[in-house]
Amino acid sequence: METRTVMQREQEEQSSQMSHSMQLSSQIKKRTFTSRDEEASCSDFYPIITADLMSVKEILNMGDFPHRRTWEVPQETLAEEHHRDEWTMFGNEAEKVELDVMRSQRALRRRVDAAATREQAETKASARLEHLERLSQKAPDFPIPLRSHAVWEGMTATFCCTVQGCPPPKVTWFKDGLPLRMSDQPWNYSLQQKYGLNSLEIRRCSPDDAGEYKALANSPLGEAVTFGTLLVNSRHGAAAGSERSQTPAFKPDGEARFGVTFPPTWVTEGDSLTLRCTFTSAPPPAQQDVSWFRDGAQLHPSTAVDIRTVDGEASITLRAAHKEHEGVYTARLRTRDDVQEHSAFVYVEDASAVVMGGPASPLALQVSDVNRDYVFLTWQPPSADGASPVEGYYVERRDLRRGEWVRCSERIQKTCQHPMFGLQEGAVYQFRVCAVNRAGAGRPSKATAPVLTADPLQHTRTTVVKVDRGRTVTITKDQLEGQIKAPFPPTNVRACEVSDTYAVLSWTEPEPRGREPLTFYVERSQAGKSSWELANLDTKVNSPRFPVFDLAKGKQYRFRVRSINKYGVSDPSEPCATISLGKPQAAPAPPHSVVAVRDAHTSVLLQWQEPEEKDDILGYYLYYSESGRQDWKTVNNKPVNKTRFTVHGLRNRKEYVFRLKSVSRAGNSSYSEESQPVLVKSAISVPSAPSAIALLLCTGSEMVLGWRAPACNGGDRVRGYYLDQMEKGASTWREVNVKPAKERRFEVCDLTSGHLYRFRVFAANMAGVGGPSEASEAFLCEKWTMPEPGCPHDVQFREVANGSLVLLWAAPLYEGRSPVTGYLLEISQGDQSDSWSALSEGPIRDTHHKVSGLQTGQTYRLRVLAVNEAGVGRASLPTEPVTAESRPGAKNIEIGVDNDGFIFLGYEADETDEESKFLWNRNYTEPIDATRAQAETRKDGSVLTFADPSEEDLGLYTVEVSDSPSHSSSYDFTSEDLERLKELSWQVRNPLIALRSGWQVEVSDQGDVRLWLQTQSLSDAAELRLVLNDREITGTPRRRINLDKAKGLVEIEFEQLSRQDEGSYTAQLKDGRAKNQFTLVFVDQTFRQTLALAEKNRRDHQRKSGPYFQEYLSWTVNEDCELIIKCKVTNTNQDTSLKWFKDGAAVSRPVYEESSGVSTLTIPQVTEKDAGSFRAVVSDGRGEDVSTLELLDGEYEELLQQLGKQSALSATPLKVQSTAVGLMLFCSLKYYMSHLRTSWLFKEKRVDQETRTRPGSDTEKVWIEICNPTDNDKGKYTLELFDGKETHERHLDLSGQALADALLEHRRLKQEAIGERSESFPPCDHRDVCVSSVCRQGRYGRFFRCCFFVSDRAKVTKGLPDVVAIMEGKSLCLTCFVDGEPAPEVTWLRNDKEIAKHTQFDVTTEPRCSTITINNVSTADSGKYSIFVRNQYGSEAVDVTVSVYRRGEEPPPCAVEIKGSFII
């Protein structure tokens, strides 16, 4: 028991010592000392220390982070207790070993520090030199290639070429594929190389020197090859070296080569693109793998690229072409000895703009510096700005989980780079960019490939250690940090990107990290201040990158960063160096010295010089336009990074100019200066070989040969032909002619009869002599004696069109025993068929024929046979295959009349130059008589002008271009054309000035009068003569005469038209040969109306100089039967006053709105006193204007009619009301006036005033009262309202239950009225029943009872007779007594119209009495007279008919004769 206790105590002491030792070990700060040259991350120096002397931590540290991290264990970890089993491998011995290792490291590193510094400096200097060398490197190229030469034997030939490249390439010369050894024949060959110019001089050329020469430039960046052929003409035979072109090169059996290849291609952005190459034969399995390249980078099949080699064709397809896909595409085919390549440029054109005038899409969008929440974007600007310059760019992103594009910022980015911050960690994004100008945002760029936001240094924090038996252990640095929780501060805070709008901060994450995810705080302070503020207030920073956008220009800032995890915040890092916004990036300078050089028939080689400041230039955009048009188009949509480029797709024989832009991240530069115009035309080369040699005639010692012209003249007309001959069995060709033959026909002399001869032909132009034709068949030199004619020759095509062509040929030189009587034509379908069929039914007499009825697009061959009396002769050689379809851009001859009246034939050709000639003929062969027509060559064509055409000039006219016979046309000049064009010619030679608008008369607002006419535009030499009433007039101050020749406008302007200006005006115009005259009859009513209008406008103009009435006084009647008098004034100011008057008295009721200038006067109920003269006056210091409205006589009658009409329209439907007296039928109106005549009808019969029926009215109601109603009063009642023009009706059917209810109510009210009158009302003195209105509270509630006294209602106390008679010349006095309370208003009417005050009528009104006196009556005074009385309780009208008879006549029998006055 005691022993066990001692052993336990010893173990506890050992454990305590081990724990104390480990605590001391953890307190020592282990540092990794680095030399100065090892501060960079790329250091490769490691001290040699055995593994048993190094700790596990240092081994792991060196594996992942060689000497660039400082590991420190904070003092706070001393409080943590470690378990013993975790530290069994360590102890006091491990602590001592670590201290020894650290001392050894210090010693070793001090020794190598100086050597490492020197080595680092040398390495950096070498890297800098290599970098500069790589920047200047350029693949070999031959700007000026070799050219072929043809020389005579014994002459000197020199091949020259220029080579470019960096490093300078090595040039090697070859002849016929073999290296050229200068040492073998130093006397014959001389090679010179100076300043990039390489020349090979061959002295005393012999046939052995003929062949193909090749210069090969080779460098580490590639190789370039140029070829040239040397043709040596021998005076004793054929040209040596030409046989080589006839001998095909040896090709192994079964080996395929490229056949038809793809040309330069254009594709629209977003469309698919397919390039194809065919093979000469089926490729064997070893050649199935055709490689495709773009700008030297190999392309591989993918979802966007499809590469195939099937069915004897290799193809590549881009499913959607973008600007990034523009460039040189190359197809490479491996052969047994070498590779065959074909290259062509693919142009990607801009797609249509999203908005009108919008910019094109940017390109080359790239993502870099990907972190957990940050990426950096760069792109290139588009070539086309649109209608206005590009102002900036919108950046958009798409989270692939959501699928929609989101604009990252509403602010546009000025430059082509932008930091993206605030992304979600672990998400997959795509980005795209849109250019913006004034028209809006353009088409977006191609989207980037999906980008995953993640920590880029995650893999560096993990180490995999191999243990026994192939097992591995993965150790992370977080596991080696012990129990450290709070992170250390970051290090190396700096600015990695600075622009004029933002700065991007970068730092190194701390170590140890604290074993928890890190975020960061970014703090900033202005330079010179000690206060710090958060730069990321609302933004979470997960990555060691942070863009700052809110920096002020001109100020300097310092930044520091803190690390954060869930345990706390670290101390701040060391502040970075001061940072300030950079200067705005300026657009680059444009290139200069733009030179365009002819290349091919549709392309031009463009070269230029780079600007001096070229460091930031990404490439160049090219633009072209036809010379003189300024219609600029884009060549490339992907910047070209070289200083030379071949522009394809140009029109042959057109002049073009070019200009360029430099491209950088700051945008595009301005345009460079334009190049000199260049004509698109192939560079001159030797012509191709002639063909189809035929024997045309043989005399026994001479042979006449003919042949077909070369298919290609090499860009220059053929200047002559050379012939070689060889007897059958001989092996040497001998030249026939030293002087070139100008025609395609030649007579070979000094031949031996009976021998067989073969011939070949060479064509020559300014570039030299071309290759030989194929040797002819062996011709027997024997005199022709056959009776049939020889073969026609020189068979050619003209006017090839869809389904037709014209065939021309020359007559045979040998006619046989009799003259040629015609020709037969034969045709063969296809290009090699031997099946011939007759084309014509009989012989053709002419040497030309139009072949019709061909199948469009089909290929044919033709031949001609001559016929004489003996039969059909030999057939001509077949023509070349021809396709019966129209040439693109082909034009026909047009006929017309020129500006001088001459009839002409015109033809335009789009592929001509200064050396092209237009050949005019009649019927294809007859020359044009120079005395009857002259041909003139112009810029784009030719014109044949006739001097004085007649029937002699009718017929078929043809034209062709000398160096391009395919450009040809014909026109049949007929008698109909001659008649039509002669009439047109007379009109041109005797022209009339065309009239666009005849004489017009205009009166201005100021009262000026303008007479004008307009003709076609006149020249500056035009003349005008004006005649008034046969007298020529000129301009005066009061009458101005103008002639606008450009517009053809003739004007006569009168400041103030007067009577003396009346008359007939004639304008006589003359313009060169053209003339005309135009007459205006300005008299009678036309003149008077114009004069009156001018005076009126002049007065109005003077009136409108101050305030004036824009709308004069006018009246209207509204729905409330109110009279509205209104006017509107304008041109007022604060001093302007507006006053109203009626009959000279001021009116104070008008309403005037100064804002609108409208003034209104409202009269609620119009009476006779409202009639009169209204006047409004507007005035101020500038003047006054007056408006008058006469509401009298007819105008007043019209007002009353409108009031009556509006009152009738406002009438409500008839209603019935029971009263104590009876039943009252009434109708309500807005305003009732006496002018509105009312009539009551019962069962379609008029109801007059009786004891039981009493009509009445007031200002708001019209009624009829039925006293003591019975069942006999049942029926339809009608109220007629007559407004003077129309009758308006209201109806009520008083029957059935409505009548029963009304009668029942009447009886009840009658009983109540009797009881109440006896109780409540004093005895009534009036003799009529009381029917006043009373309000009662009955047992059934509150009700209104209509009860009024008849004596209160206005009425006539006694009725009038129907008719009264009076003798003419006497006076009639009618007196009426009226009653009512209050006293009624009395109105007298004649024929339903109110009697106005007049000398003939005297109206007097007294209380209860009214008298009208008609003085000195006449028959015109006969008619209906009425008295109308009314008050607030009712109204009544009484009519009387007055009949005036002449003296001696008897009064009407039914009339009451009036001797004097009559009192009612």
Question: How would you sum up this structure in a few lines?
Answer:
The chain has 1464 residues and is mainly beta. It is built from eight helices and 104 strands.
Write structural notes for this entry:
- The chain is mainly β and 1464 residues long.
- It has 8 helices and 104 strands.
- Strands 2, 4, 5, 8, 9 and 10 form a 6-stranded mixed beta sheet that branches. Strands 98-97-101-102-95-103 form a 6-stranded mixed beta sheet, with no helix packed on it. Strands 11-18-17-13-14 form a 5-stranded mixed beta sheet, with no helix packed on it.
- A hairpin with a 6-residue loop joins β38 (619-626) and β39.
Helix content: 10-25%
Mean pLDDT: 82
Structural class: mainly beta
**Percent of residues in β-strands:** 35-45%
The biggest beta sheet reads:
6 strands, mixed
Total strand segments: 104
Query: What gap, in angstroms, lies between the N and C termini?
Result: 166 Å
Please tell me how large the radius of gyration is: 59 Å
pLDDT < 50 stretches: 1-8, 17-90, 236-252, 1320-1350, 1460-1464
Tally of alpha and pi helices: 8
Estimate the global geometry from the Cα principal axes: flat
Topology:
Layout: H1 2-27, H2 56-64, H3 92-136, E1 138-144, E2 149-152, E3 157-166, E4 170-175, E5 178-179, E6 189-194, E7 197-202, E8 211-219, E9 222-233, E10 239-240, H4 243-246, E11 265-268, E12 273-278, E13 291-294, E14 297-299, E15 305-310, E16 313-318, E17 327-334, E18 339-349, E19 363-368, E20 374-380, E21 392-399, E22 405-407, E23 417-421, E24 428-437, E25 440-441, E26 451-452, E27 462-466, E28 472-476, E29 491-498, E30 503-508, E31 519-526, E32 533-534, E33 545-548, E34 557-565, E35 568-569, E36 592-600, E37 603-609, E38 619-626, E39 633-634, E40 644-647, E41 655-664, E42 667-668, E43 678-679, E44 691-698, E45 703-708, E46 720-727, E47 734-735, E48 745-748, E49 756-765, E50 768-772, E51 779-780, E52 793-801, E53 804-810, E54 822-829, E55 837-838, E56 848-851, E57 859-868, E58 871-875, E59 882-883, E60 894-897, E61 903-908, E62 918-922, E63 926-927, E64 933-937, E65 941-946, E66 955-961, E67 964-973, H5 975-989, E68 995-1003, E69 1009-1015, E70 1023-1028, E71 1031-1033, E72 1039-1044, E73 1049-1054, E74 1063-1071, E75 1074-1082, ...
Parallel strand pairs: 2-9, 11-18, 95-102, 95-103, 96-104
Antiparallel strand pairs: 1-3, 3-7, 4-5, 4-8, 6-7, 8-9, 9-10, 12-16, 13-14, 13-17, 15-16, 17-18, 19-20, 20-23, 21-22, 21-24, 24-25, 24-26, 27-28, 29-30, 30-33, 31-32, 31-34, 34-35, 36-37, 37-40, 38-39, 38-41, 41-42, 41-43, 44-45, 45-48, 46-47, 46-49, 49-50, 49-51, 52-53, 53-56, 54-55, 54-57, ...
